[in-house]
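queue> holo job accepted (iron/sulfur cluster)
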Amino acid sequence: MIYIHIPFCRSFCIYCDFYSEIPHCRDRENEYFEAFAEAVSLELMQRKGEFSAESPNTLYIGGGTPSVLPPSALSTIIDAIKANGINTSFEEFTVEVNPDDIIHGGEYIKSLSDLGVNRISMGVQSFDDRILRWMNRRHDAETAKKAYAMLKEQGVGNISVDLMFGISGLSDETWKKTLEQALSMPGGLPEHISAYQLSIEPGSRLNEMVSEGKYLDAPDEQCRHQYAMLCDALHRAGYEHYEISNFALPGKRAIHNSAYWSGSSYLGLGPGAHSYDACRKVRTWNRASLADYLAAGDFSGLRESETLAPEQSDIEKVMLSLRTSDGISAAELERIAGKAQVHEMLRLGNLEAAVNAADSAKTKSSETAEPRLRIPESRFFISDSIIASCLPG
Ligand code: SF4
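queue> job finished
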């Protein structure tokens, strides 16, 4: 798996704390983007030894806003991947886009397809213009619908749409309309929907607004109710709820993200990108500085790392696995949490047998017949406290 972080946005959304910068040199922008693509290519060349023998099966270009990059810069990166002996016929090749970058012409979409992109993840967040303005998103609801229709018309067969709930200004009625719009998109249902509860991240504009008394977090009861509305609407539309925040039509689970949740290795390129070596249990990350990244000749100087102790690794495994409907091996959870605790969680109904684990997952976990345990979907909303109860100590 390869992840490439594109650290550019045209504007900043108030809730976001991802590392990103707004390019301010419009007249020389393409040169700037090309220099960035060359830097990614150089980092890839320096780190190709970190790949396992097999070629990676997924490529995920995220950000930031990757659709800010012109196709020529993306092409430079893809050429570098090929030049380093990696097969670019990825099983899943995702690019994150902003609807506003899509509607300017079908040519852009065609360029993505020509580069091998076979999945688009589009940040929509809401179909209510008042909420979108409050978030400082640069598109409106009509633009999102138009962009989606254009993607479908151009034959993109795998689209993921991001939505957001649990905002104090978001009434149940408005959330219901957003869900209805998401499920009646021109061109058919999105193959995948990710829906996140708004969280107040340190470093975001929203966090400052909280400190300034300009925003009050949504009540827990509102968040719980809107999450239940989400689960109900998507179930009825035929989606599989395979991770706390993720829903897929049959056979359309996100392969790349599923591999994160199952603890697989991945290589992250770009400023701020994280990598993980599952064999050695080593996590590395690049310094989140575009200026340093562009100036680096040797990228190892930008990287920090930590080796996970066995206890940390166990904790991560529980935290990631129990987010999913495939859950965790029962024997593994008993080893980590203790048999008595697991039995108590089963008695309370906070865990159940993961009976459908082999249905449609493409994760390693689903290929084994060993008994597995998971959090029932009806308790996903309180998963944080259930997971905390399953951790050692
Ligand atoms: S949510 Fe996306 S578009 Fe908005 S600031 Fe964050 S990375 Fe940029």
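queue> Residues 9, 12-13, 16, 18, 20, 63-65, 98, 123 surround iron/sulfur cluster (CB under 6 Å).
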